[in-house]
Amino acid sequence: MKIHEYQAKALLKPYGVAVPKHRPVFKPEEAERATQQLIEDDGNPIVVVKAQIHAGGRGKGRFKEDPELGGVQIVRGAAEAGRMAERMLGRTLVTIQTGPEGQAVNRLLVEQGVDIDREFYIGALLDRAAERICVMACAEGGVEIEEVAARTPEKILKEWVDPVVGLAGYQARKLAIGLGLSGPALKNAVKVLIGLATAFDKEDCSLAEINPLVVTKTGAVLALDAKITLDDNALYRHPNWADLHDAAEEEPAELEAQAYNLSYVKLDGTIGCMVNGAGLAMGTMDIIKAFGGEPANFLDVGGGADKDRVAAAFKIILADPNVKGIFVNIFGGIVHCDLVAQGIVDAVKEVGLQLPLVVRLEGTNVEAGKKILASSGLNLTPAEDMADGARKVVELAR
Ligand code: ADP
Ligand code: MG
């Protein structure tokens, strides 16, 4: 689960990651008031108004309706902050990470303007090969870190965290010295690096990035941006994560699928897949590719697939305009093939179907299931086995 910049900053701050004073706002009046308060706090009239979406590249991004305007704007004074908020809220921001359709901006962050001396990148992720958290630092901050990693990977410094002792002081110092820091800035950066590594572990992150981490003229070290992905597997340990969830940022079909307890991930291909079991779903996607097709989704209807879930799954697949054919691949273990077949027939009658549909059933009560499909009068193509089904659906979808 991804969270917004202001939520990530709130999560990191208690661990010693210094951030500029900021306030999330939802309305232009709130932006004006928040700016007023920030100015009263430290006398600096310069604030930054930042679009809160789950995508990076906001500074260089542009609003669809207002192509002059980017997602990170420096303004002076409360009135100007209010006007800026008016221009951004409810509009669609397109960045390198949102895709051409962009993302609606419903929240803003109003933040103290910081007098930046130097910008760096720091981040932490789980290195599965090393079985450790890896903390990274790079002197080329503010830019696309992916580009640096591709072109000049040696510029990204890395330290692996011992799970017992955490990121050691000497490791944090090595990274900070590697960034070219010294004096108070070095000491402050060490604190931030250790804070980031500790927060990553304690808060069950799967990715945490600060880009840019900045050093000011006075040697303060601040996180100006923060991007965190939380590890969904740890949800049970964090009941408060429900408050951090922003449904507006998610694929609508994936939310719909969650409501029916289906695991669904939208992909870019043309073959809609409906499968029971995650392993079989992965195998189905592979075999579709092997026959020259591209799956439009991963969809696991689960073990207890009843008629309602099958119908919901069909609706979700059909809502994707890229889908040109559907492959239902069900292994009846706990669930019986005749019940699934009836679910398919009922669902198709309910939602209608213009596309080719290939069905492969195997397992408990398979003969009864095949009979139901054959006598349903529906225009569907039965498959003998997985390979047969994949070959047929790829052909029919062409
Ligand atoms: P994104 O990575 O989505 O473009 P950032 O939060 O990194 O968004 O902001 C982009 C750039 O805007 C930063 O690299 C920094 O130069 C500038 N910036 C962001 N926040 C502030 C701030 N509070 N004060 C001054 N400059 C800022
Ligand atoms: Mg950034």
Q: How many helical stretches?
A: 13
- Shape, please? elongated
Which CATH-level-2 architecture of the largest domain?
Answer: 3-Layer(aba) Sandwich
CATH topology of the largest domain: Rossmann fold
Q: Kindly state the mean pLDDT as a whole number?
A: 93
Task: Specify the biggest β-sheet.
Answer: 6 strands, antiparallel
Helix content: 25-40%
Which parts are unreliable, with pLDDT below 50 for 5 consecutive residues or more? none
What is the structural class? alpha+beta
Summarize the structure.
By secondary structure, the protein is of the alpha+beta class. Helices cover 36% and strands 25% of the residues. The radius of gyration is 26 Å and the shape is elongated.
Verbal overview:
With about 400 residues, this protein is α+β, with helices and mostly antiparallel strands. It has three domains: about 20-110, 2-Layer Sandwich (Dna Ligase, domain 1); about 115-240, ATP-grasp fold, B domain (D-amino Acid Aminotransferase, Chain A, domain 1), CATH 3.30.470; about 250-395, Succinyl-CoA synthetase domains (Rossmann fold, 3-Layer(aba) Sandwich), CATH 3.40.50.261. It has 13 helices and 19 strands. The strands form five sheets. Strands 8, 9, 10, 11, 12 and 13 form a six-stranded antiparallel sheet that branches. Strand 17, helix 11 (about 335-350) and strand 18 (about 355-365) form a beta-alpha-beta unit. About 40% of the residues are buried. The site of adenosine-5'-diphosphate (ADP) has 19 residues, from strand 2, strand 7, strand 8 and strand 11.
